[in-house]
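User: Good morning. I'm curious how adenosine monophosphate would be positioned relative to this chain. Could you predict the structure with it bound?
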Amino acid sequence: MNILVINAGSSSLKYQLLNPESGELLAKGLCERIGLDGKFTYKPQVEGKQKLDAVDVAMPTHSEAIQAVLNALIDPENGVIASMKEIDAVGHRVVHGGEKFASSVLITDEVMAAIEECNPLAPLHNPANLIGINACTSVLGKDVPQVAVFDTAFHQTMPAKAYTYAIPYEYYKVDKLRRYGFHGTSHRYVSKRCAEILGKDPSELKIVSCHLGNGSSITAVDGGKSVDTSMGLTPLAGLPMGTRSGDMDAGVMEYIMKKYDMGIEEMMNILNKKSGVLGVSEVSSDFRDLTDAAEAGNEQAGLAVEVFEYGVRKMIGEYAAAMGGVDAVIFTAGVGENSADMRLKFVEGLEFMGIEIDPEKNNCRGVERIVSPDGAKVKVMVIPTNEELMIALDTAEIVKAL
Ligand code: AMP
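Assistant: Good morning! Here's the predicted structure, ligand included:
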């Protein structure tokens, strides 16, 4: 069985073709600058096949982009499948499922309408996801089943006390303003892997899952269910990130907007695009650049990294408290998987909770590994995330039941 996994943005589209049963990745790539001067990248994962790197392909709309993907996949010379018939289904990453979707679903006209109803909650992302789905329908036809996998769905198990904002309740009742959380597919994948690696049933485990990359979020997973998470109505909340501020006193906005006569659009642009470790360091949003700059003596870069590390450490403690204990702490995504030094900092001083790292075991990058000392009370683990595989697995499960 082959599943095409699509992550559509407003002017870009990432894709992977994979076999969910074996986990084998056949090809992946990216369509960029859709509607502009289309650039197409294709990376077959099969020996002897040529890749394409940002070549010019006319992609006035997402439909041509999907067509370009299919053309590459079935290309007689460098394709990885013989025909479109070898694509059994398509799995789409959809950012916001609101309160309507607590799990992945087969896409129908009703589901499309329900996703559209969530557009106001993610005005930049959901419309693009819908365009991606429509493009697949127009190119592949209605007979190839398509499944929507939501970034928010895993967090729908949060109790009201965790998702309710302490603002007038009216805004929840009328506008559904509440914490939703994101990165759900990643947190679900790594927490599931964690249970498998430890040979336990998910119901037996209290896990703090730390997805730390350019965007970062931490989730408390109790008994296999998300019970709290750091992102909110939007991905702006929680930890300081590459360019996002994370949690902050709303009074700061009032001060800046009044003093600098700034509108809300500009303020939000600053909080989303110019804040986080980029804002603090005035160097870069990229953690590798920052650790390099800090080592070279740039104190502001060092401070930005410290603010992030401190935020992660505090939240591990917060979520252990929320669950009344912790059995495993997972580190995933760019920083979590790759930075051994930062992992040491994230857990510094948490020995009193039974959380510690063995520096020798921790000397690894991008591999699944338990990095806490043998016999430690809390297992600290590095687990590379794989959202595409999770999407393909969900899609396969839904399609097989049809
Ligand atoms: P992601 O958004 O998951 O792709 O993560 C991207 C972030 O991971 C960037 O800020 C990278 O600098 C960071 N990253 C990747 N490798 C390392 C590393 N070895 N040390 C520190 N940060 C890293």
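The chain has a mean pLDDT of 97. The radius of gyration is 22 Å.
Let me know if you'd like a different ligand tried.
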